[in-house]
Amino acid sequence: MKTTLKFFVMLFSVISFAQTTVKGKITDNTGQPLPGANVIIEGTTTGTSSDFDGNYILTTDQAPPFKIVISYTGFETQTLEVTANDQTVDVQLKEGNELDEVVISASRTPERIFESPVTVERFGLKEIKNTPSVDFYDGLENLKGVDINTNSLTFKSINTRGFATFANTRFMQLVDGMDNSAPALNFPLGNLLGMTETDVNSVELLPGAASALYGANAFNGILFMRSKSPFDNQGISGYIKRGVTSQEAAGDNDYTDLGIRMAYKFSDKFAAKVNFGYLKGTDWAATSVEDKLNRGLTRADTDYDGINVYGDEVSTNIFTASGNLPLVPDVEVSRTGYDERDLTNYNAESIKADWGLYFRPWGDDFEIQYVGKVGSGNTIYQGANRYNIKNFFLQQHKIEIRNDNFFVRGYVTEDKAGDSYDMVFTGININRAWKSDTQWFGDYINNYVLATLGGATDTQAHSAARQAADTGRFLPGTPEFQNAFDASINDPDLTTGSKFQDNSKIYHADANYNFSHLWDVAEVQVGASYRRYRLNSFGTIYTDTDGPINYSEVGVYTQIQKSLELSDNVEMKLTGSLRYDKSELFDGFFSPRLSAGFTVNENHNFRASFQTGFRNPTTQDLYIGLDVGRAILIGGAADNPARDIRNYGLSPTGSALLGGQTSIDFDGTGAYNNSFFASSVVDGFAVTGNPADLEIANSNLAQPEQVSSFEVGYRGKVKGFVIDASAYYNAYKDFLANETVIAPFYGDVQLTQNIPGTSTPLAVAAIANGDFEAYQTYTNSDADVNSYGAAIQVSTKIFDGFDISANYTYAKLDFDVNANPDFRTNFNTPEHKVKVNFGKTELFKNFGFNVAWRWSDNYFWEASFGDGEIPAFNVLDAQINYRIPSLKSTFKLGATNLLQDEYFTAFGTGFIGSQYYLSWTINNL
After folding, report:
1. What is the spatial distance between Cα 618 and Cα 188, in angstroms, rounded to a whole number?
2. What is the pLDDT of residues 686-704, one digit of tens each?
3. Which of 379, 610, 761, 873 would bridge with 152, disulfide CB 3.0–4.6 Å?
4. Helix, strand, or coil here: 512?
């Protein structure tokens, strides 16, 4: 027993002796503490971070001597030697500039942003703390070359270098390596499944093609968000923001945003963290009653279709509907619609949480992670229609094994639509619940004829007809309206309801290995990825009525990077990448990237790159089958159009031509093999009556889109100024977009089939009698689509430490719109943008401020919901902040859109008003 006791005493003594403790304080060059600075033992992953007062304590079983590396975003890194136990090492870091910061995204390996082979933007902890925007995600809009299209208070869509709607399928968003696109929609939902602000470690953004390393969806840009590790950042931190949103249409409404992070390092081998975020407010109300089709019509016109008025999409030619009665005019008449504000309460809400377990079995850089994320809430999404995304649910689960040289990860993303519904079809089907379309138009026609026979003018007759047809209509606020509304949003059949259902999933796995630790000749990386889609909308979005749609894609890539010293003053860095991707639906594609960077005199870096990118058609491009009112969206997968089968009533003429049948089952194949361009019908044949004006469409099925991108850039320091400039040219091949076509229910578009005994083509008769369907197809253009642009930012310090930066972005579409009137590129980007930031983190002790101003040129927005001009706008945001070290707290008072000039970034959305907020952040290192 005594021997055993002696053994444990000796063992304890050895363990105690092996423990080395280093402590100290980390400050900037003015003596202010730097909370959250990293302290790492060189050559290991063992480390800690400074607390709110800049103090740190590092305990390790490694005996001195060894070196520690101290780093902090925006400051120069220092390496210091530890020679004894209980040594105090105080550090004063020298402030650097943004070019000294380290990024990972450009080459999948750490490197200074100064030496990055392509354009990369970084939004670090300093920028997050100083942004006057309401949250860090909104703050990304102040980066050069970045647009944020505001869909909703809780749903923002990032756009870089153009070609983006709210469904920005050309842009990828990775959160700790996970693509957080919603499986059903195939694009990111802003930060709804992103990060809480206190857990953000860094944000990096690559504009332009990045397919060579990141695959098909990284076609026009990619955003990386990386969270804090619980091994490095421990403790409890949180924030609360309270304020108001102010909009002319919606008034002043309360706004609350709060988040909490809890992380604990149990040992050198195990750590865990939990995050929770909650946001609630009132959305920007969309109340435009202007004519959606840009014809200048008002509610007084017969065929009015308001932008944010729903139900008036249903229209018919009353002359044709009357059986060609002589007293009935040959005009389109639409039903009376409901305002959007009567179909939603504009509740904006986001609830999200994530958690992670991190295990380092050998106490070194080898780590096993499990991460889970969930998100729910309410938002507005504008796609082909306006949708109230209510009680949606998104979740992700990831297992990852990694160290400094490799990672292998697999994750699943699942979404559920909850109680979401289409507001356009809600308006349509409340009308139909009260009175069918046939009955309403019949009442309209009968009362028009009676009024005309009574001596009324045409205008008076139309007014009397609408008033009579609308008698007894369900009015907002009445029990009848509410009952019809409730029935519609709970009914997934779009002929009678507006609910859409979804439970789609994405399964993804990827891996990467960096061989740089094995040899010094060059840095070589290899990697691979696999993704499987499982679409399951129960027929409400996709043509999956008979069951889920499954398909998959795989990719492999390699990259070689080599630095060469050409002279004492010039260093060259060469990077070459090659990726191969294969979807089971299409042939495989190679995506190469070549770049060269030259560093001259340590302060100047010149770079040039050529890269190709490609993107497979998205899930919607391939398998959508969605009625949006005035057209049906029909995906371009080879097996998709035939699955979209709908029943249509026939005109008396059509019924006679088809042997007396009163209706027809018609599928979507006609959109791709028997259709006319809609513009040739509406602007040609409908005006002239000449069949020669009809132009055959017959859209091609969707194929992958490709881009070749050329870029040059410069980063450097010139007499206290930091300059970052770039220019690019993109050439697209097989550009994916929509065509609007019209498919007749009978007859061929080559006009070889005539009505028996006449020379009138059957297809012409079908068009003339309203026996057709309008489609938006998903196809590729053989037209030349190119874009080019440039961006420059200059930043410096003035007046004894004030930070000031200004950037300018130019973007231009090179596309012949007149030669391709039915083809939408959805460029949706201003030609000119200017942004300016001015502030100081320490105006006086513990007090700082920042002001951000941005101006956007006017531009034309086009998307499936509607097209229209976006006027130029300028926005001023500002914040002041005060630190109270004794409370480990920062208070921030801020406002966005201080000028109170309401604006919008997309056709059909609500005007963006102002936000005023006060935030309290605790212990956010």
Report:
1. 13
2. 889 899 999 999 999 999 9
3. 379
4. strand
